[in-house]
Design a protein that fits this description.
Elements: E1 6-10, E2 15-16, E3 22-25, E4 41-44, E5 47-48, H1 57-62, E6 68-71, E7 74-77, E8 92-97, H2 106-110, H3 139-161, E9 171-175, H4 182-189, E10 193-198, H5 209-223, H6 230-238, E11 247-250, E12 264-270, H7 279-289, E13 290-301, H8 319-328, H9 339-348, E14 351-361, H10 364-375, E15 392-401
Parallel strand pairs: 9-10, 9-12, 10-11, 12-13
Antiparallel strand pairs: 1-8, 2-3, 3-7, 4-5, 4-8, 6-7, 13-15, 14-15
Length: 416
């Protein structure tokens, strides 16, 4: 059995990085979130920083307010009030267990340790969605973004290779691709016809995307001898996205305007579906655009994105107040629906769940402490939820479109 002994180590030799971000060596590379979310935290005067943990480095630099990220042998962090941690008179420590609370099943290991937790940070009310914010094009950030895109894209390649001999002629739709379309364009270079859709589709950035895609092309050329680099060459030569390489749809998943009926062989999403206020209309659109027998791979993060170390706190909220906050923050906090509810949504909208593979479990001690609080939360629809339905906080759905789409059912929305 994994030990839960918490260790605390003071940070020394703290150095400024960029903006509100500071960096210090941890000498504990196993805490890094470059492959999956880290459960370690940073303490300021003995109190955990508000986070969120595993924050994108741009968020730490530009917004700060206690965001942090364990990255390889270092911790990137900001003070809770964006002051200088070297001179504000406070102590800083890292806190971690000697065994991870993340459990990944053998099936996911068989396709590679590729599923990385989404790099969300808390969306302040009134701020632009993350995809529309200015990108950081510093060389180190570009390199990390390319690594992440290849990690996600490599995961898609391994999953799809189990089902298809090759990708030639397959139409692939990625929902919510993020700040770049690197994972999708990797599939394009391997023969797929690709498209992306997002309510807040990231626009082309002359200071970021040409350099990002040049690095991506360099890696693919070195590591995929049979890849056709034409999709990336067209984009780089024209200095913009081209329909010859990738089709773009700026549309909410609940509508998927412009995507033709029964036109898609594979739908992919990574940490996207938890940001839907009401999954049923969105899943009906996925069913509409999917061919009979089409596959869907959906990695879903069921945690409260305000604080990954306390992944179920949003279940305590009164339903109407949560729905209001959800809307104001563009869904960045996550929608609270649990894995069993997602399975029901898929089945209701014309998909068969072939497999659900948990990738992350809530810590046992946290569940023991949390459950009595949930049972006292009179305004929450999850007040009487069983602990077995709370334990899994991340996982991968593999679904298949059935021959017929079920009749329309009553919507299940956040305010019910």
């Amino acid at each position: 059995m994994a030990s839960r002994l918490w260790r605390r180590v003071p940070l020394s030799d703290i150095r400024p990085e960029i903006g509100f971000a500071y960096i210090a060596a941890t000498n504990r590379p196993w805490l890094s979130s470059h492959r999956r979310a880290s459960n370690a935290s940073v303490l300021e005067e003995g109190v955990p920083l508000p986070g969120p943990a595993n924050a994108p480095h741009d968020g730490i630099r530009q917004i700060g307010q206690g965001r942090f990220s364990f990255w390889h042998n270092y911790i990137y962090f900001s003070a809770s009030d964006n002051s200088d941690p070297r001179t504000n008179g406070r102590s800083y420590e890292i806190s971690y267990t000697d065994a991870s609370s993340i459990w990944v099943p053998a099936w996911l290991h068989s396709v590679g340790n590729w599923i990385r937790e989404a790099r969300h940070f808390r969306q302040p009310i009134g701020q632009q969605p993350v995809n529309l914010q200015t990108r950081n094009s510093a060389p180190e950030d570009l390199r990390k973004d390319v690594e992440y895109a290849l990690q996600v894209g490599g995961g898609w390649v391994r999953l799809l290779s189990e089902r298809f001999a090759d990708f030639q002629g397959k139409t692939v739709l990625e929902i919510g691709p993020g700040i770049n379309f690197g994972s999708t364009l990797l599939l394009a270079c391997l023969g797929a016809q690709v498209m992306v859709a997002d309510r807040f589709l990231a626009p082309w950035d002359d200071n970021y995307h040409p350099r990002f895609y040049a690095l991506l092309r360099e890696w693919i050329e070195k590591n995929h001898a049979n890849a056709d680099l034409t999709p990336l060459n067209i984009i780089l030569s024209s200095g913009r996205y081209s329909a010859e390489s990738i089709r773009l749809f700026t549309t909410p998943l609940e509508k998927l305007d412009g995507v033709q009926k029964a036109s898609v062989d594979v739908v992919l999403s990574n940490a996207v579906l938890e940001h839907l206020a009401d999954p049923l209309p969105a899943f009906r659109q996925l069913a509409r655009v999917s061919k009979p027998g089409a596959l869907g791979y959906h990695q879903v993060d069921f945690r409260d994105h305000n604080d990954f170390s306390k992944p179920l706190e949003f279940l305590l909220s009164e339903d109407r107040s949560f729905a209001k906050e959800f809307s104001q923050r563009h869904g960045e906090r996550g929608n609270r629906f649990r894995p069993a509810e997602y399975s029901t949504f898929f089945e209701k909208t014309g998909f068969r769940v072939l497999q659900f593979s948990p990738s992350c479990n809530a810590d046992k001690e946290y569940l023991v402490e949390f459950l009595p609080r949930l049972q006292s939360a009179a305004g929450s629809k999850y007040q009487h939820e069983q602990v077995d339905n709370l334990r899994v906080i991340g996982g991968l759905f593999c679904v298949k479109k059935t021959e017929e789409t079920p009749a329309r059912t009553v919507n299940h929305d956040q305010s019910s």
